[in-house]
Amino acid sequence: MPEDALASWLAASNAEYVRERIAAGDSPEYAEERAAESNAQYFPGGVPAAGQLVFDVLADDEPVGVLWLGPMSPRHPHDWWVFDVEIAAEHRGRGLGRAAMLLAEEAARDHGARRLGLNVFGHNTVAQHLYVSLGYETTAINMAKPL
């Protein structure tokens, strides 16, 4: 992703992350805290930390989505994570999400990763089906009950 697009993507990504966490049951305050912690770790000063990769997903040479991946922590450089993959709604259903995930696997492998993980919110069943079709397996399930 070009540097001049990174700041606006990061702001939009943070807002979406907060919305998703709230939809998953987190308080707005906790969701905001998690977003701030993530920024401090992975985008200090608004730029990607070492090893963090942010790609534009292109269709016909136009950006239609984004892919962000990198090592989960410096202590585990071979365990990589897809932090965000998003295709604009009007471009979904064309195989671009699948292509982005295959790019993620290739990029992670090229950077020495031995494992690639991701989180998908429980209400996002379309994405869950995509990941299963690509060979991803469930490693944990978080559950909650409103009181």
Short synopsis of the structure:
The chain is an alpha+beta fold. It has helices at 3-23, 28-42, 96-110, 125-133, and strands at 53-59, 62-73, 76-87, 115-118. Helix 1 runs antiparallel to helix 2 (28-42).
Please tell me about this protein's structure.
This protein has 147 residues and is of the alpha+beta class. The chain has one domain: Aminopeptidase. The chain contains four helices and four strands. A four-stranded mixed beta sheet has the order 1-2-3-4, with helices on one face. A hairpin with a 2-residue loop joins strand 1 and strand 2. Helix 1 runs antiparallel to helix 2. The longest helix is centred in the N-terminal third of the chain and has 21 residues. It is globular, with a radius of gyration of 15 Å. The model has no long low-confidence stretch (mean pLDDT 93).
Beta-strand proportion:
15-25%
Order of helices and strands: HHEEEHEH
- What's the mean pLDDT score? 93
Question: Which CATH class?
Answer: Alpha Beta
Gyration radius (Cα, Å) is 15 Å
Number of domains: 1
Helix content: 40-55%
Most strands sheet: 4 strands, mixed
Q: What is the name of the CATH topology?
A: Aminopeptidase
Topology:
Elements: H1 3-23, H2 28-42, E1 53-59, E2 62-73, E3 76-87, H3 96-110, E4 115-118, H4 125-133
Parallel strand pairs: 3-4
Antiparallel strand pairs: 1-2, 2-3
Question: Which short descriptors sum up this protein?
Answer:
147 residues; alpha+beta; Aminopeptidase; four-stranded mixed beta sheet; 24% strand
